[in-house]
Design goal:
There is one protein chain. By secondary structure, the chain is an alpha/beta fold. It is built from four helices and three strands; from the N terminus they run βααβααβ. Helix content is 45%, strand content 15%. Strands 1-2-3 form a three-stranded parallel β-sheet, covered by helices on one side. The two termini are 23 Å apart. The mean pLDDT is 96.
């Protein structure tokens, strides 16, 4: 399992949220910098789409560092991360593919 660390202490707003994930995962230049685009990129980590790639059936662990402070400072971005990470796995299961994300944080 690959682990990608996101330093949430560097997230202050939507722009820095998208920057943090785009840099850590190597999202393509066409990344739309919105949550729909984020979901698309995270859903397709088992395709040749981002720099971080896994084989179908493998998992990626997103380790959200400094999550407790992030939850207080940026509640909207924190909630979007939690809900959209879950949605990525639900979406994959709905089309017959295995989940792809595991999240790790202490909030």
């Amino acid at each position: 399992m690959k682990t990608v660390r996101i330093d949430a202490s560097k997230i202050a707003d939507w722009a820095s949220f998208y920057d943090s994930f785009a840099n850590a995962f190597g999202f393509p230049q066409l990344f739309g910098r919105n949550m729909n685009a984020w979901i698309d990129c995270m859903t397709n980590l088992d395709e040749e789409f981002s720099a971080v790639q896994v084989q179908t059936g493998e998992l990626v662990c997103v380790s959200l560092e400094d999550a407790a402070d992030f939850k207080v400072r940026c509640p909207e971005q924190y909630q979007a991360f939690v809900e959209c990470a879950a949605f990525v796995n639900w979406r994959r299961i709905e089309i017959g593919e295995p989940p792809i994300l595991v999240v790790s944080f202490n909030a």
